[in-house]
Amino acid sequence: MRRSRCVAAALMLIVLASTAASLSSPAGAAARGKLVLAWHAGLASRWLDPQEHDGTATPDNFFTAIHDGLIKNQGTALFDHPALAEKFTIAPDAKSATFTLRKGIKFHNGEPVTPQDVKFSYENYRGAKADVFKKKTERVEIVDDRTIRFHFKEPFLDFAILFGTANVAAPGWVVPEKYYKQVGADGFKQKPVGAGPYRLVRHEPGVKLEMEAFDGYYRPVNVKQLVMTSVPEGATRVAMLERGEADIIYSVPGELVSRVQKLPGVTLAPVLSGSWFLEFPGFQDPKSPFRDKRVREAVSLAIDRRAMNQAESAGFGKVSGNWINNDVQYALEWPEIERNVERAKQLLREAGYPNGFDVDWVTPLPAWYSRGERLIGQLREVGIRARMQTMERGVFFQRLQGGIKEWPGVQIIFHGIRIAGSWSFWYEAHVKCGGFNSRDRLCIKELDAKFEQYERSINPAERKKLAEEIQRAILENHYLVPVFRHAFVNAIGPRVAAQKWQDVFPTITTGYAYPWEDIKLKEQ
Amino acid sequence: MWQFIVRRLLYSIVTLLILSATIFVIVRLTGDPVSLLAEAGARPEDLERIHRQWGLDRSWPVQYVSFLQNIVTGELGKSFNYRLPVSELYFQRLPNSLTLGLVATLISILVGVPAGIISAVKVNTWWDTIAKGVALLGLSIPGFWLGLVLILVFSVWLRWLPTSGAGDWRHVVMPSLALGWYFAASMLRLTRSSMLEVLGSEYIKLARLKGLPDVVVIAMHAFKNALIPVFTLAGVNMVVMVNAAVIIEVIFAWPGIGRLLYEGIFNRDFPLVQGVVVMAGFMIVGINLIVDILYAFIDPRIRLTR
Amino acid sequence: MAPHTPQRSARPGGAVARLDPVLRVSGLQTHFFTFGGTRVVRAVDDVSFTLHEGESLGLVGESGSGKTTTCLSIVGLLPRAARIVGGSVVFDGEDLTRKSQRELRLIRGRRIAMILQDPMASLNPLFTIFRQVAEPAFFHQHLRGRSLRERVQHLLRAVRIPSPEWRMREYPHQMSGGMRQRIVGAIALAGGPRLVIADEPTTNLDVTIQAQYLDLLKDIQRETGVALIFVTHNLGIVAKMCDRVAVMYAGKIVEQAPVRELFDAPKHPYTRALIGSVPKLGSKEPLYSIAGQPPNLADLPPGCHFHPRCPDVLPRCTTDEPRDFRLADGSVARCWLHG
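Output (structure tokens, whole complex):
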């Protein structure tokens, strides 16, 4: 009698203990195994600090593992997936935004994530778009121990997008105030502490990041050890995959795609990436052949988009009708443009170019020269003759920012870009007069006026309408000619559990494999 | 002897100053790093902010003085990308590069020098032809091709060696082979021509006339004399291998200085590029001094004259 | 002085005793084969002479006449492109042309020694004097330690180097040309040779030093009884140093005679021209030089090789190569004038 009661008591204790254990550490109990990611470029330490986000679509691969944001882009959610915040509301007048933090969330050093840390992260943010936030924010109010409210000077409709898209800006990614001040901005980049699913265990600058599952994370983390290593040479990454030294590799070189496809247990993950489109700098000049809409349309009809996709992305890219990616707010869907060489030639005849004409230069984004060559070949078939201009990457950007004077004569620029968040960022950068890349090369007055209207508007419905009108105008007038969306071809090794590649790359706003905590290894 | 060393040191300081000024100007001529790094979607305000953060809004002379100050304090400036003092990054990677450089230098010496000697002693015979063929292969086969072939054969097919990265001795084998291969060929050629020149000299003729055994003539009389230019080359080669083995380090993802330099250039990380180049300059100066001192040990003409 | 004391007594330059010759070269032919064997240079073409103990033979001629190649043929150290294709070199009764390199190495430096022309280049700059002088004794006579050191000092003293104990620790670059050439002489004597070949040993020395050096050589020869072949283009030295002279032209010996007879009555037109071209002190006549150029040894003229430049040329000289003619005063001349 006594013994069976002891046994029962012992059993109860065991059940209670394991329940308590599994409740308190949803991550720690299940995390097992090691996953190695071979990254295709250099590894800058400053990417580990969301406070100095440089606005490119690179740092998010790294800080999403170590840090977390109030809301973020995950899966099919463009920006509003609730993460550290379990809910949030935007005021109807768009002059404030309120976030409620989850219960019990912690930083890697055990400190709780508080609204004070959120306020610090927001106010101390010095990264891309920081001036926008600073200009528009009136104050940050800590409502209670889990609620924080941002007050704006005027309606700030883009707040949520800017706040929640990890490859645009990161003032909503929370860093521990005390620790950050203690080690300083530079020290933080060597030894970052965040609230993300993984904590950094070992950091070899430029070489490797070794991370371990954080058992205080509010979601279960599957893989215990996550290693990201920098391997700039494509063939070496493929060799690592073959040898089992890497489980996920980014950017499989085109000539090795077929080899990787044949490897047993390996899945290709051709993630849709940058959009490629043509710009006609200074087309409004009366001397430019591109001032005539028919000529621009002819160029658009001359392009064999499918062939381009096949040749440049092994067919994994996407041929869409809009130059703006469909993973941003208010992006317009537009039907694919079919190639029509005859119609293109006819349009050129009507416009007064029966024998075509010469283009001084076609300049693709360096160093994607093969697609530039293909474009030139395709244009030649309708009588438009051009040469390709090559230059170093840095020079290209400098020339872009130099404006029309850097692009004399008759030229075509073949852009390749990926911008996340909102369609308006695309417009601002590539069409607007004075825009970062467009400068003074386009300056389409009516559209700029409408865009100003869009920016001033505080009515989402009105905004959507204006957005679509502007995009339609651009596409119908062929101010910019979309070519295709190329694929960032990655590969998943046999140890990773994946029915299809989208299981490992579920987030459509990025080419990277986050959320990291969801990746599973087969033995689990 | 002291006068000699002091004078050499003074020349070295002047050389390093000129080097620092040159690299300072050249990196800045490549353009603005900030616009390269901030892609579309950035605003002019963002660029301004980064300019200020990295000290690029100051005038060139001010930046140069700051750079010199950094060299003197030993910090060598702070990398834009890594936010660490360049010296820290450099010395973090130095052991890896030294390992690779030393092993590759050893390979180049152990393969190149004996082959060069044999080829000189048996000039115009089959041995010589084979050696010259090997030298030709070594100098014309590009390092990246050889590196990738080695990975394919020894790592992917045979599964004997790991593909890349640093670790234990197995990781060093392929990169040092791919790196040392080219330099072995140049060592071979230099040793061969140096030996040939020495073997044609009068004192070797006299040594033969003394009836000395061939081994003594070659190993003692000829070899020591022929070694002198080979030494210099080995020294310079090693510095190059340690600081600028970019291709090999990129292919094998070797965490060395060459890769650091490459990424610095790619990202226009001025302080990093400047710092690495200046460090390489220091290293060359140092190695030259060591080689000169070694000469003094070997060659009494240097040791005993003013 | 040397351990190897000759059994026959040395004699002053002049009368030659009729003993077995130290060296007898008969019909030596050494050719250079270049361009894969298509081009043959007859550097030494049927050369014969004899040398007795204590005797010194002068080997005279222009550059390219074959003097040095003859000497190298004797010791068997020809460059790769050259080969002895005929004749014999009999040294102390053995034909050196039939010996292997290994056997020759035992003779070189020990029984036959050579002094080279350029004292600045003959010594290895990296080794001490001691090392370089000691080597022949070390390898041939297997001397070691103290006996080796004493031998080196002895040799250095024999070539009149002051303070040999200190000097031998020094390096060649610390010495003057004259001193270096003496050291080369010491190296030559180190093995106790029977024959010393001196290839233009004073050409690169200052005139003042030359005389001293020649005196030294003569004294050594007198003391040791060593046979000496003295290669030079300087007739004055020949007159001073040699018992007999052989004049070479285009790979052949055109005249051989005792020194007195050669200068008093040269038999071959070339010899006459050579002697005539020596400038005379105080004379105001224009310098005499031999007309024409030395022949291309790969493409020699038919008949007598000298005939294109000969002032006394006969018709026969253009077609038939002359043979040696022995003359009454002991000269041998290879010239149709005496046939």
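Chain C touches chain B through 33 residues (CB under 8 Å).
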